[in-house]
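pinned: reference chain
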Amino acid sequence: MPSEKPAQRLEDIIENAQAIQRYIAGMDLAAFEEEHKTYDAVERCLERIGEAAAKLGDLASALMPEQRRDPSISEEMAGFSKAKAERGGPKAV
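pinned: its structure tokens
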């Protein structure tokens, strides 16, 4: 079901994406995996982004038609997930 507050949902997405950028600034993957607090904070921000995007539904495309899905992001996330699994990154408790 689309959000009743689409502008707020977009703001939530932007704020959480910016927070992730601040949290991981200057870190490589190995450092990120070792820093459990940062890992957890980024994971929570990604959850919030997903929740906001789900609430937006198809409104996202209508509100921001200039934005296109970037397939390289999906590939990068898949690569991160694979590397995390292979290295035994932080686990949920």
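why pinned: The chain has one domain: 6-87. Residues 6-87 form one domain.
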